[in-house]
Design a protein that fits this description.
Number of domains: 4
Strand content: 5-15%
Number of helices: 26
Structural class: alpha/beta
CATH superfamily of the largest domain: P-loop containing nucleotide triphosphate hydrolases
Distance between the termini: 44 Å
Helix content: 55-70%
Strand order of the largest sheet: 5-12-11-6-10-7-9-8
Shape: elongated
CATH class of the largest domain: Alpha Beta
CATH topology of the largest domain: Rossmann fold
CATH architecture of the largest domain: 3-Layer(aba) Sandwich
């Protein structure tokens, strides 16, 4: 098997069959129902005991551009960044705003906000009570901005629907009031600041003007001379010209450095010369055409020679133009450099001359410029003061950038708990949880449940599956709840092994004096017999009987050798149905017309005599211990052609008796007298009896209780059999729930076939 096949097999093994899931539901239906009911009841208790909560919602519009000037706007500072709206949302949830809304609603007088239904404490005098009040209010508040809009939804939860709506509306009103107050507070601060700054600036201007007049009088300055003015102006012009020359030199130097290494094969993108661009395109075209035709005609073709000449001529022209461009760029760079140096010298001379100017004139101009700048600033502040005065006069109008879009209304129905939805979700959760628990338990179940389990665990074939027996269902469908005390042969009559006449065959009587062992009036009552024990005889048309016949066929096909006629029936552990299986398999073999012997070799807990309502006397142990007569061992049954040898009294040494030479010789005699022999043996893992009989039988058939026998127990039992060399034709899965897997459908069709024979 290659890796791919192994992976496919692994994937197939992991697939969850829908039918298996349905079977799991049917198998664990009470567990699933219990979990679902528990979850549903808990949810019901929760929703019906919880106090209903109502949610009221309103909507605000927060404009980005305010209508009233703020302190920041006076100095043209941008205050509305991307964080503006986030700030507003946080303000809506602030404790100060919550306190305002609580005071507006008088929540301190409500018992539900006082804590534990106690008498409300005065919030203003008790900081702890005020804190609890604000916490309670914020606990019911939620703010949800509407994406891609300037809208925000504000909700409040309360047990009182009217209070929920009033809380939202009170928060809106308080938020607007706080916003207006904040803006006008800032305006008043700005007005006061401007008044102080204007007064200070006017005083400073007056002082500077007096200093200028005093300085002019001291230095005898009336006005700056024309020479001084010219020198200053010229210096400024030279400075501007020098700056431009430096920029021009830098640009031309950069261009020269970029094009100085230009070649016909490399032309910088900065070269926009139309002649060069045209020659470059022509050179590229000729190169492509030359390469194409050279591949087509060869290098000696006349057209190739012409193209080669044109290509070389174009290349030379391109080189010439490129050199001319480089030379021109170098010349421009040198000229710009000379101009820069020339202006730098003139500027330095003029600068030296300016330094020599009268310092008095420079100081005079400095004072005068300060006065001019201060007067300009004063005009700006006066203008702003006028604007803030207008804003202050708008205070009574109540202008705000916040507007109520929708006021909250008292809700008509509670928002939580949502009884129908909660109960439905609880029911679904319980069902899924119950199914998950059932699935987990099923995955943890290590018992044998299918033929696949047997194959994977021990590598043996499954000879057949016996469904779980339901007496009531069987009685209802087929009416076979009667006993087994009478039959063609009568119960409990001995049979002589050899030299049996045809007359004896017909009448069921022995040639020699056999002993009747049927229960007499003085005998103690026998235990009640389960219907499953001989169902193949009592109800041959039942599905279980059909299963036993299928197993019979599988056994016969698995042992096609005519010499293979003796099989032992055992199990891994006790109480797995091996005795009932042995009895029913013996019946099915006898129904083929073959002489069949059922030998009870379970000398520890024998059961075959109970199944056939016989007393456990004159059995195998009597013969092995030398106290019994072989003529009295074999007993006829109610089933034609089926005979049994019961175990006899329980010995102290069962294993030694079964492993004796006498037992081996006895089995040889039985093989000569019967067509098939089935031996009921103790469980493999409990005692060694079945292993001791291994060499005497043609094969040991294991019985496993479906859904009960662990895979580990079955594995250990098969390992013991293999260690002793005991052949094992296969495993019979007994008492399996027929609703599992495909067994359900097989048995269903079998019932339907027999219940409607005319429709087949």
């Amino acid at each position: 098997m290659n890796e791919r096949e192994m992976q496919e097999e692994l994937l197939e093994s992991r697939e969850i069959n829908l039918l298996d899931l349905w079977v799991l539901v049917l198998k664990r239906k009470w567990l699933i129902a219990s979990v679902a009911a528990t979850v549903f009841v808990l949810a019901a208790v929760y929703v019906f005991t919880r106090t209903p909560v109502y949610t009221a919602t309103g909507q605000l519009l927060i404009e980005k551009e305010p209508n009233i000037l703020t302190f920041e706007e006076i100095f043209q500072v941008e205050s509305f960044q991307t964080s503006y709206y986030e700030t507003q949302y946080k303000l809506l949830q602030s404790r100060s705003l919550a306190e305002r809304a609580a005071e507006r609603l008088k929540l301190s007088e409500r018992p539900e906000f006082a804590g534990n239904g106690k008498k409300p404490a005065p919030a203003k005098s008790d900081p702890a009570a005020r804190g609890r009040l604000i916490d309670a209010f914020l606990g019911g508040l939620s703010v949800d901005p509407v994406a891609q809009t300037r809208l925000v939804n504000v909700s409040f939860k309360s047990a009182d629907p009217k209070l929920a709506a009033d809380a939202v509306n009170a928060l809106f009103d308080s938020f607007i009031d706080m916003s207006v107050e904040s803006r006008y507070t800032a305006t008043e601060q700005a007005t006061e600041f401007l008044t102080q700054q204007i007064a200070s600036l006017r005083s400073d201007i007056e002082r500077k003007e007096k200093e200028l007049q005093a300085y002019a009088g001291e230095k005898n300055i009336v006005a700056l001379s024309d020479t001084e003015t010219t020198v200053v102006s010229k210096l400024a012009e030279l400075n501007t010209a020098l700056t431009q020359a430096q920029i021009d030199r830098v640009n031309k130097e950069a261009f020269y450095n970029e094009v100085r290494n230009a070649t016909p094969n490399y032309i910088p993108a900065s070269i926009n010369n139309p002649i060069i661009q045209s020659l470059r395109q022509e050179y590229a075209r000729l190169s492509r055409e030359y390469s194409r035709k050279q591949e087509q005609f060869g290098s000696e073709y006349p057209e190739i020679q012409r193209l080669k000449t044109d290509l070389e001529s174009t290349r030379k022209s391109l080189e010439t133009e490129t050199r001319n461009l480089i030379n021109a760029a170098h010349a421009d760079y040198q000229a710009a450099r000379k101009k820069e140096l020339s202006l730098q010298g003139v500027f330095n001379d003029q600068k030296q001359e300016s330094i020599q100017l009268n310092s008095n004139a420079i100081s005079y101009n400095t004072l005068r410029n300060e006065i001019i700048n201060n007067k300009s600033l004063l005009d700006t502040l006066v203008k702003r003061q006028s604007e803030t005065g207008v804003s202050a006069r708008l205070k009574g109008v109540g202008v705000s950038n916040i507007r109520i879009v929708d006021r909250a209304e008292a809700p008509q129905s509670p928002s939580s708990p949502k009884k129908k939805r909660t109960l439905l979700l609880a029911l679904l959760a319980g069902l899924f949880g119950g199914f998950g628990l059932a699935y987990l338990l099923d995955r943890l179940d290590n018992s044998v449940k299918s033929a696949q389990d047997v194959e994977k665990t021990v590598g043996l074939a499954t000879l057949g599956v016996i469904a779980e027996f339901d007496p009531e269902a069987k009685k209802k469908s087929y009416g076979y709840g009667y006993g087994y005390g009478s039959g063609r042969h009568g119960g409990g009559i001995t049979f002589v092994l050899k030299n049996k006449s045809s007359k004896e065959e017909a009448g069921g009587r022995p040639a020699g004096g056999g002993e009747k062992t049927a229960a007499g009036p003085k005998d103690p009552p026998l235990p009640t017999i389960k219907t499953i024990d001989l169902i193949t005889h009592v109800s041959p048309k039942s599905n279980i009987s059909e299963s036993y016949r299928s197993i019979r066929t599988a056994i016969l096909l698995s042992t096609a050798n005519p010499g293979h006629k003796i099989f032992s029936i055992s199990s891994s552990l006790p109480s797995e149905g091996k005795s009932a299986t042995a009895a029913n398999l013996a019946v099915t073999l006898a129904q083929t017309g073959k002489r069949v012997l059922l030998l009870d070799a379970d000398l520890r807990k024998p059961r075959i005599h109970r199944i056939f309502k016989l007393k456990n006397q004159n059995g195998l142990t009597n013969f092995l211990t030398g106290t019994g007569d072989v003529k009295e061992l074999v007993k006829v049954t109610v089933v034609p052609d089926l005979y049994i040898i019961n175990s006899g009294p329980l010995p102290p040494n069962p294993a030694e008796l079964l492993g004796s030479d006498k037992m081996a010789g006895f089995v040889g005699e039985l093989k000569a007298a019967f067509d098939y022999i089935l031996v009921d043996t103790p469980p493999v893992l409990a005692v060694t009896d079945a292993l001791v009989l291994g060499p005497l039988v043609d094969g040991l058939i294991l019985v496993a209780w479906g859904g009960k026998t662990s895979r580990e127990a079955l594995k250990r039992a098969v390992e013991k059999l293999r260690q002793t060399g005991t052949k094992t034709p296969g495993v019979i899965i007994n008492r399996l729930d027929v609703k599992a897997h495909d067994y359900y459908y097989r048995h269903h069709y079998y019932y339907d076939y027999y219940e409607h024979p005319g429709e087949a």
